[in-house]
Description:
Helix content is 51%, strand content 7%. With 159 residues, it is mainly alpha-helical. Residues 35-44 and 154-159 have low confidence and may be disordered.
Amino acid sequence: MASHGEPQDRDDSTYRVTVRNVTGHTTVGRNNRVVGGIGATAGQSSEVTEAQREELRREFAGVRQLIEDLDGVSEREKGAAVDRLEELEAAATDDEPDVRAMGRVRAWFAEKLPEMLETVTGLLLHPTIALLVQAAGDEAAAGFHGLTQTFGSFASGEG
């Protein structure tokens, strides 16, 4: 359910939007162009290219750097977070993706380092991860779909 409010300023460019129980994509704003998505659409190949894998590796490296650059977080906590991130990368990119491990890692960030939860959730929503899981078969894809359904409340650390 999405409810659109009144413009927040005079040029009509800022809106307050409340979204609850969204099970698909949501786009808010003017003149938006949405490209991509989660998983493959009908007729689209679920085969992952080396370029897609490399892009995903760069995304993980970027998040690793964000963890290293965190202020107010001990080196021990940063090390644990990097370990969890490596666990997530292995779980997502293995020949048999481990959806349960993905959920455990996300839950760890929600509890131990909530300031990184949105970033980690964004990694899990990366289209290449969805393709890797889909290529692993129906059971993995169903588990991943179930996991991503819990992301509606990711900003609050629930799910």
